[in-house]
Each structure stands twice: as C-alpha cells, then as structure tokens.
Design goal:
Blueprint: E1 7-13, H1 19-30, E2 32-36, H2 37-50, H3 58-65, E3 70-75, E4 78-83, H4 95-105, H5 108-119, H6 121-127, E5 132-137, H7 140-144, E6 150-155, H8 158-167, H9 174-183, E7 196-199, H10 205-226
Parallel strand pairs: 1-5, 1-6, 2-5, 6-7
Antiparallel strand pairs: 3-4
The chain binds 2'-deoxycytidine-5'-monophosphate.
Length: 227
C-alpha cells in the first residue's frame, strides 16, 4: 500500500482460470484500472503475424518490435493497448493468435519489449484518478510487480477451464498453452511465493470475487484504522 492509499493487485493464473471476469468485477468494486496483459501479448502476436514475422526468428521479431509504436486507451475502467494506431479486439481471441501467442510470449525480446510498458500502467491508473491498478497475467506477481500490495494466483481444474472457453465459443488448447507458458525459461507461469492461491473449480464467479474482496477489504480496513 502506498502512502496515498494507491494499491496494486496482481492476479496470475493459467489459461481460462477465470482471471478476466474476476478482475473486471474487482475493478468495479474497488475503483481500480483493469489491465489484462494477456491481451497485450495477443495484440503483439496479432501485429507480428500481420507483418509476416515468425516466432522461430527472434532477430526478425526484435527488428519488427523496434518499429512498433505503443499507446494506451482507457475505456470502461480498462486499459487497452493501441498498437501502430489500432486497438485490435475480436481478432486477438481467434484461433491463429491462440495457436501462436505462447511461442511469441516465450521470447525474451517480446517480454523485454513489454516490461516497462506494463509497469507504466501504474502511472496511467494514477493519472486517471483510479484508487489503484489490478493487473492480470502470468508473471505479474513474480516479475512485473513483485511488491504489489496484493498477489493472487487463480487455479481451476483443466476440465472446468475447457468448458468455460467452450461456453465463450472459443477454440483454445488450454493445457498446451499452460504447458508452454510454464516451461519457458523467460518469466514462466508460476505461483509466486507468498501469493494467495484461489481454486475456483467449485466456486461461482461471485464466490471467487467475494473471497478476494474480503482479503483486500480486511487489509484496507487495517491501513485506514492504523493511520
Ligand atoms: O491470459 P491469456 O490467455 O489471454 O494470455 C495469452 C497468452 O499470453 C498466454 O498463453 C501466455 C501469454 N502471457 C504471458 O506470457 N505473460 C503474461 N503476463 C500474460 C500473458
């Protein structure tokens, strides 16, 4: 917690573990700017594929990234990436991006390119008058904001996750992406030490949000009564 009360919530977890719905609900409840870093890796993947760049050629990736221009658009309490003047939306959830995003995300060149951009969203949240920032991804509590006020790790059994994606009408190899994301050398998907693990397999979205909110509220209450 920072002296002016601004706080950062890091939420990590595997594919379709319920991060986005949970984070959106928490952002509304606590007045936080929501950042889905998976959408950033997806937008970069989409742009690189459009430029004809292949993840098996890291030098070509690095050269293409050097020419990419990033901005941010805040709408509906959420910070979307503007990439070379566009904000790709539905296209970043399609099968082509699903099939390639883990390969691009495993490249240190791509992770380095996004590191400061992701951290700078704390400034975007402050400048926008938000009470804090809630950021979801794979390495938020371990690499991007290891000192976040709150760090959570969401889990759910793979069957439940496949059903959730199917209900959203998406084709996605959840377990294959998790395998690639967990085994890569650069900032792998891990539950950071000290993070609170929440298993949502048998919980509704409301129950997950309630559980996390109680933890946040308890600490916010402690801070306000101690000072
Ligand atoms: O959360 P998602 O399924 O939309 O994320 C898409 C991919 O992006 C995921 O398979 C791995 C990558 N990713 C990452 O490597 N690090 C993050 N902080 C967020 C996503």
């Amino acid at each position: 917690m920072q002296s002016d009360g601004f706080f950062i919530v890091a939420v990590d977890g595997g594919a379709a573990s319920g991060k986005s719905s949970t984070c959106r609900a928490l952002s509304a409840r606590f007045g936080l700017l929501h950042v889905d870093t998976g959408s950033y890796y997806r937008a970069i993947t989409h742009r690189l594929l459009n430029l004809g760049v292949d993840p098996s050629e890291p030098h070509a990736v690095e050269a293409a990234l050097a020419r990419i221009d990033l901005g941010t658009r805040v709408a509906d309490r959420s910070a979307a990436m503007v990439i070379d003047g566009n904000t790709p939306e539905d296209e970043i959830r399609g099968p082509e991006v699903n099939a390639n995003v883990s390969a691009f995300a495993a490249l240190p060149e791509v992770r380095a390119f996004l590191l400061e951009y992701q951290r700078s969203q704390a400034r975007t949240a402050r400048d926008g008058g938000f009470a804090g920032l809630i950021m979801e991804g794979r390495d938020i509590g371990s690499v991007i904001f290891p000192d976040a006020s709150f760090r959570f790790f969401l889990m759910a059994d793979p069957k439940a996750r496949v059903q959730r994606r199917a209900a959203q009408g998406q084709t996605d190899s959840i377990q294959e992406r998790d395998r690639l994301d967990s085994q890569r050398k650069s900032s792998p998907l891990v539950c950071p030490e000290g993070a609170v693990q929440v298993d949502s397999t048998h919980l509704t979205l409301e129950e997950v949000v309630e559980k996390i909110s109680e933890i946040i509220e308890a600490r916010l209450g402690e801070t306000s009564s101690s000072g």
